[in-house]
Amino acid sequence: MRAGSTRLATVDKRPFFEKVLTYEVGPELIDGAHYATMIADAAKGTVQVADYFGTSHLFAGLDSARKRIVTLVSLYLEYQFDGDLAEAAQSLRDNSFLSHSRGGNDLLKKLHALPESAMFDVGGQSLKDFQDERTLAKPMTCAAYRKEFERRQANARSMAAARWFAQDMAVPIAALETIDAEAVLRTALLNRLEGSRGWPNLQEFAQRVTVLHGRLSNATTNAFKFSKALLVDVPQQHQSIAAAIGREIATQDLPYLANPSLALDAMVHTLEARYFLRETGIEDIDAHDAIVSKEWHQLTRGKEDPYSRLTLFVCLAAGIKPKTTLSVTEARALIRQVRQCGFDHAAVPSLINASAPYSVRAALLTMWEDDFFPEAQIRLLDEADPKMTFALQFLSENCNLGKK
């Protein structure tokens, strides 16, 4: 290694206020009289800060207050004068010490007023807890303040844009509670990309995914773009945020939607967590499930009640043609079939895992394996019931036998 190729850097971790006091800016810029006034103000301010956070009657409280007030003054001086020691020293000379402390506290209040996250109506720290933490436990430096201020400003901009797009989708503001602004923006922009309007529920979202999947399946990579033309009516202050979310959709969601090897229900299940969908009743969920699982719909014929599902399952397990309703004659034939050949234990779980809508697979497996099938094996295979009286009663209670 050549001589002189390395250098040692000095790291000064002192509070900015201390750096200002020790900075040489000329003879007696801050003279004895200024120092005396500053000390008196600092003593007064320390007692006030100690009383605010606890007590001024204990040494520990006063010592903590001293550290807090130094943090506040340092923050204000470094932020206000952008780290210029000479200008900061002149400010200490020309203005009271307490005004600098108040300036630092005002900066913290301004930061606290900005949203900690981009999620609507989610409470964060109280102002006092925030001041407590950022003046003592985690003293806020100027660099940390600027970084956090920029992050929270971005949250505020995202939320403002999300409110505009929510209004454009006719979403009540009350519906945004605990919703992330990005989810609202994604939904609004996917609407524009697909050509729809309004606030979609799960079924409508599945329909939009279906349209985009069909459109993108044979498209070139040029299709994975979000055109600026889709944002012509968006106010200027929201344009950059909307464009950034549009690019995320283009790079993250559109290639996924274009994948021909993925099942539609898997796509919807993966994507719905990123979007803001209107809550729906069970009827809408069933309609959504019918859209995303064609094979399932062909088997159930749109009948999604428990009786129809269990009738279908017991037919599969018995090895007969799957139906959602059985006549008494067909039910007797089913019982004879299982008494002669037994049940196919794997048939129903295999169907559920392969064809049932993703969102209800776990519930269907529980209904079959835990609630119905164990008792069905006992009741339908009971040799002490040669006339099938109790077996038919069991099927009548749990399945569609005749008319239900």
Question: Care to describe what's here?
Answer:
This protein has helices spanning 16-22, 32-53, 59-80, 85-94, 97-113, 127-137, 142-168, 181-194, 202-216, 236-257, 264-272, 282-292, 294-300, 306-318, 328-341, 347-355, 361-380, 389-398. With 404 residues, it is mostly helical. The chain folds into three domains: 16-115 and 122-140, no CATH class; 163-287, no CATH class; 293-398, no CATH class. α9 (202-216) runs parallel beside α12 and α16 runs antiparallel to α17. The relative contact order is 0.06.
Could you name the key traits of this structure?
mainly alpha, 404 residues, 3 domains, 64% helix
Q: In angstroms, what is the radius of gyration?
A: 34 Å
Number of helices: 18
* Total individual domains: 3
Nearest-integer average pLDDT: 85
Biggest pleated-sheet summary:
none
- Helix amount: 55-70%
Structural class: mainly alpha
SSE layout and pairing:
Layout: H1 16-22, H2 32-53, H3 59-80, H4 85-94, H5 97-113, H6 127-137, H7 142-168, H8 181-194, H9 202-216, H10 236-257, H11 264-272, H12 282-292, H13 294-300, H14 306-318, H15 328-341, H16 347-355, H17 361-380, H18 389-398
Helix pairs in contact: 1-4, 2-3, 3-5, 5-6, 7-8, 7-10, 8-10, 9-11, 9-12, 16-17, 17-18
